[in-house]
Amino acid sequence: MLPVTVYAFRSENNRNFWFWCFLTVAIAGAGALTFVTFSGGWRTGFAPALWATITATLVIYTPITVFYREGWKLASGLLPYLIVLGVLAIIWENQPEKPFLTSAPTTWVLLHIAFSLTTYALLTLAAISGFAAFVQERSLKTKRHTVLNTAFPTLAASEILESRLLQYSAAVLVVGLLTGITIHFLQTGNLFEFSHKVILSVVTLVIVLILLIAQKVSGLRGQKAARLALLSYLMLTLAYPGVKFVTDILMV
Length: 252
Prior knowledge:
The protein contains 9 helices and no strands. It is mostly helical and 252 residues long. The protein starts with a helix and ends with a helix. 38% of the residues are buried.
């Protein structure tokens, strides 16, 4: 992931041949590590969850760079963050894990995992877009230019990306919650389980919906919208890798 990170911070570069080469290397490297990690079956540990998250985020990021003209510039914030996650995964790769036990049909479990990873990847990109909008608005107010200010998408492009990605995140999160409810019902016969993961996921959905409604009704943009986007991402982070970190590392 380092080559595409360095490339993204060079202001004279663009979404050209070298960008696609470096991005392909990043996806191939993270994808290979994820494949090896899960080759023996699904794993529940903190480090495997991080590698799955990194790969899913890079895969979801790729079409964003294709369909949005300045979408590729999110790499300036996204790739350093994913590198940090990769370092954390390496540090705790040998941490003992809990067994993966479920009586639900495999298809439902795989669907739930796929939607969960997609939601987290989309909300990660939405949070990066919100952070980019925050940086650009602050730069306009202070009239000071920084490395991030040059590398990130423009304020208008960042806000468009943030809004679109939040919409996608909300839709996929709803489906993910429904598949989770289905799995819990198939296992226990009950519809709901008020666990930390469920509560934080619902809170995330509520925050995202409030932000989308505020953007539609009052035109909420800039730093205020960015703060809500980052708050929703924090809630989902606590629900997914956060819970794993507490149960698999802190409580061991």
